[in-house]
Write a structure and sequence with these properties.
Elements (H helix, E strand, L loop, with lengths): L2 E2 L6 E2 H15 L6 H18 L5 H13 L15 H16 L3 H13 L13 H12 L7 H11 L7 H16 L5 H26 L2 H7 L10
Antiparallel strand pairs: 1-2
């Protein structure tokens, strides 16, 4: 069992991740999956190691918890979120933390980070602490994770079953936001991680574009927009 015992009660990361995974699986979100949370966790540790040599153990504990729980409040892709997902994630985490007896200072730090991860700075609350920056970067870096691109694009296709979908628009959107988010990364280590992955990400996108261009029957069968000219 992976624990930190420098607090009044040990923090059991296995139990924390398991509970978060159950919530993510129950939500049936096609993009913000267990794989996404694990990738965010891995990214965050890499950024922490490269950017916070004097970081406190207590902050690392909070960061790891925030990675596991930041998307637990999301609904499935066809649902309209009545409550912002980061707010619902905070509610779910706070309930779990209370049952587990977590120190309040850890809970407060996790809550700040989760509230900030969707739009940097949160929803007008002015949160700008370092852990929130790390979580924001780690979350957005999953956009260029070559191991997740296919899962994410299939998530688009499966999740928007009630609306329009085209592979071309989804690929263009994904390429666009990858450039948009890299300009807003907070740490040099985050930018290094982005550059390490971008070549593999770009190569996979090119391969997918070539596949779609030569497989019009597949495109027509899996898209939900008019494709009269055979264009992706």
């Amino acid at each position: 069992m992976m624990t930190f015992t420098c607090f009044q009660c040990p923090i059991d990361f296995v139990a924390a991740r398991d509970e978060a995974c159950k919530l993510l699986l129950d939500k049936r979100n096609f993009i913000h999956t267990v794989a996404h949370s694990d990738a965010v966790h891995s990214n965050a540790l890499r950024i922490w190691d490269g950017s916070c040599p004097d970081g406190k153990e207590e902050d690392l504990v909070a960061l790891k918890l925030a990675c596991y729980w930041h998307d637990t409040g999301r609904n499935d892709r066809d649902s309209v979120e009545q409550t912002p997902h980061e707010v619902e994630s905070v509610r779910l985490f706070s309930e779990f933390a209370r049952r587990s007896g977590y120190p309040q200072r850890i809970v407060d730090t996790v809550v700040r980070a989760i509230l900030s991860h969707r739009n940097r700075g949160g929803r007008g609350d002015g949160l700008t602490d370092c852990l929130s920056d790390i979580l924001w970067d780690a979350d957005k870096l999953d956009i260029v994770n070559p191991h997740r691109v296919l899962e994410i694009l299939w998530g688009f296709q499966a999740g928007y079953s009630a609306g329009e979908f085209s592979w071309r628009s989804s690929l263009d959107y994904w390429k666009g936001i990858s450039v948009k988010f890299v300009e807003r990364l907070h740490f040099d280590e985050s930018r290094r991680l982005f550059l390490e992955r971008y070549d593999g990400f770009s190569e996979l996108i090119v391969q997918m574009e070539a596949f779609l261009a030569s497989n019009h029957e597949f495109v027509a069968r899996t898209s939900r927009v008019p494709n009269r000219e055979g264009i992706i």
